């Protein structure tokens, strides 16, 4: 290959790249749809009248979500531990892995369908989505930064004044605007396009298989009290019989100081479980099978064990034959939303690459 | 009518013009922090508590809010809540006054919350202004006056050193012999929990009532004895409780708070802060 040929080749590759990127960005809808309540969902809990979602607000929120300046040494972004392909949790990490390689004590919760949550985190210590970033920003094992310092850094950055102006009308960068923009991004993370949803909404002729149907019946009998449809959580806090861990995390009790809440943790949604392993508040179980085995035979009794697990014969747990378990697993497979975890709307903007956000 | 007005004016004397409730004047409470019978200084100056334990102070900060003034006839004036949040920092004398406006009048009692009321603690971010905000240069400077993991303000933050503090997890594992008291708790959002909001009421009659007049300032000078944190009705030992944050024990410490405040004197008809 002579010099010119080489040049041509490079040019060809570049053109190809640009073409590929264009194609990629074409996947994004031309019109920003804003927040839409899925037909089979209840009314959201978040008060949108205080913080109406706009395209500019969402885009700013996305930029901030992937902004490492939110951490003390500018290395950790929200998106570092809440990864889209893992349904906005930290795949493969039992507990949060934050700044300076420090480890937390809990598994990061997925940022999904938060518009329907009343309280946040495993212990429900935060009661306003807008205030949830304070937790991660100020936690010494996560971002180890202060909010005023984050605002200072954003004010100094060349891009943000314009982005805040676009989103909120003026250039001011304030705490309320920072939090509201992040909320806009998080609120848009609605996952409701699973096979289950399609069946419920009678879409595209979607129908459960025999095994899924049987699994659904079992689910409704034995699981749905806590993992209630369509969010697959009743948003309560319960002690599900896990052996207390080494740090003796007492869960909800640390927030209410009520001994009856000892070892109670938020009932997590089952949506997108395929992407959110490992499971439980400390990520101790690596597989769905291990989770189901916990409910079948691994539960540890204690004073605050949720009474729902006490069987009339004195046993604790959920009685389940092997066949029932298989059917249940088939049904649970219908709760994974591949479109959500691959939706380019939520993807990290490629700042340095060919796609200029 | 004229005669009556003239008589009243004469009775009130020269330095005390007739209060006109339609006008407003400046009113402040001064939080003068002391330690027992000594002035407040920071580390390495040492003090000794009732248990005979020597300690030094590194940080003292607290919120004051919801100021109310009462007249002898029992009527009260509540400062508009929006304007009634202050953060007193023991290390910054500029923060020692909580200055507000009040209708002209002679006030015999004043009350305030040590901390932040439950209502405001639940409000959305845009309603958390001034010292309650997270903004640089006006808020609490991320000075750790807020629990991010358990949404709520820390009402009273008091940190220092005591050589009796152990080096283990129950003490200070960094080996720096620190004690830390971060007292808060507004009663819980959806589930009831500890409420350490303390309404402090100060009778001004013995030390001089506050005469608020337009164009002038009335300043109620309080002494705030932080030694009472240890020596109040619930006397406790620093090494036995070197870290008290969001826990049941914090209720005992908060119960000591009212005993910290005493009225020293009132300065009325003040024209400039230099006079205080």
Walk me through the structure:
- The complex is a heterodimer of chains A (357) and B (276).
- Chain A is an all-alpha fold and 357 residues long.
- Chain A folds into two domains: 143 residues, Cytochrome c-like domain (Cytochrome Bc1 Complex, Chain D, domain 2), CATH 1.10.760; 144 residues, Cytochrome Bc1 Complex, Chain D, domain 2.
- Chain A is built from 13 helices and two strands.
- Chain A has a two-stranded antiparallel sheet with strand order 1-2.
- The longest helix of chain A has 24 residues.
- The radius of gyration of chain A is 23 Å and the shape is globular.
- The C terminus of chain A is likely disordered.
- Chain B has one domain.
- Chain B contains four helices and 16 strands.
- The two termini of chain B are 39 Å apart.
- In chain B, the strands form two sheets. In chain B, strands 3, 4, 5, 6, 8, 9, 10, 11, 12, 13 and 15 form an eleven-stranded mixed sheet that branches. In chain B, strands 1, 2, 7, 14 and 16 form a five-stranded mixed sheet that branches.
- The N terminus of chain B is likely disordered.
- Chains A and B meet through helix 4, helix 5, helix 7 and helix 10 of A and strand 9 of B.
Largest interface between protein chains, with number of residues from each side:
A-B, 37 and 29 residues
Strand runs of chain A, count: 2
Helix vs. strand class of chain A: mainly alpha
Q: Could you state the order of secondary-structure elements of chain A as H and E?
A: HHHHHHHHHEHEHHH
Query: In terms of quaternary structure, what is this?
Result: heterodimer
**Alpha carbon gap, first and last residue of chain A:** 37 Å
Number of domains of chain A: 2
Flag low-confidence runs of chain A.
Answer: 8-26, 352-357
Instruction: Compute the separation of the termini of chain B in Å.
Output: 39 Å
What is the approximate shape of chain A?
globular
Name of the CATH superfamily of the largest domain in chain A: Cytochrome c-like domain
SSE pattern of chain B = HEEEEEEEEHEEEEEEHEHE
Q: Output the radius of gyration of chain A.
A: 23 Å
